[in-house]
Amino acid sequence: MLHLTPLQWTLAIIAAFGVGLSKSGLAGIGLLHVLIFAHLFGARPSTGVVLPMLICADLLAVYTFRHHSRWDFVRRLLPATAVGVVIGAWLIYEIGDANYQPLIGAIILALSSFQLLRLFKPTLLENLPHSTWFATSIGLLAGITTMLANAAGPIATLYLLAVSIPKLQFAGTSACLFLIINCFKVPFSVSLDLIHLDTLTLNAVLFPAIALGLFSGRWIVQRIPQRTFDTVLLALTFLAALHLTGLF
Predict the structure, then answer these.
(1) CB within 8 A of 53, min separation 6: which ones?
(2) 220: helix, coil or strand?
(3) pTM of the predicted model, to two decimals?
(4) Residue at 1 is within a domain
């Protein structure tokens, strides 16, 4: 796994930098590393490459944004997300690599369309994001997609944007949620032989790029107006979902 060409190492470093950026609050960028590592190592094996990197980034993000976490939202999403992880682990056995990435893209596209509808019709279904069933549905989808492809960031983004959480609280809350969930995923990934010594060695080599991405992202997030922040996140999420479905 460490025997990469210079171009492949460049892509891996860019992807690791993207992992850090995604944990600073720019969650839409998170699908960048999903796509690059899937290209380098294959869709299914890449999940084991990425997971320890995400945990490292989560730890840094929790420390960086520790004063901005909203634990009420974490508690609201966590149980359903954990159930979704279990479902996702089962689906890995049932769904081929060629099928589950387009499925994830279709799910994210549907949620992106819903959020766009709310932006144009802010009074339409205005109580829906705070309902228990909506949070449960988002949690299940996030758990399934994070287990299948480490691609739950855009789904959590859509929920946290829908409840109008400020951008620093967004970063702190999502970091706490995914630190717990990603640690919960480790036994499943190990049992599926997705995490092993080679993947952990690669993670150690790429860690500096993760840290640089996180702190660069923090600088960016603090300087972007809230409305611009929301719009950029939604646009990145929508485009990345289109790519996952194979439309471009």
Answers:
(1) 16, 19, 33, 203, 206, 207, 210
(2) helix
(3) 0.79
(4) no
Handedness of CA 191, 193, 195, 197 (dihedral sign): positive
Query: For residue 182, what pLDDT is reported?
Result: 93
What is the domain range of residue 224? 7-244
What is the domain count for the chain? Answer: 1
Phi first, then psi, for residue 65 (nearest 5°) are -110, 30
Residue 23: alpha-carbon gap to chain centroid:
8
Structure tokens at 62: 């929790």
Q: Which residue has the tokens 């009074």?
A: 123
Amino acid identity, residue 19?
V
Does the residue 149 lie in any domain?
yes
> In one letter, which amino acid is 204?
A
Below-50 pLDDT ranges, the chain: none
Q: Give the chain's length.
A: 248
- Is 20 a domain residue? yes
Cα–Cα distance measured from residue 177 to residue 194, given in angstroms and rounded to the nearest whole number: 22
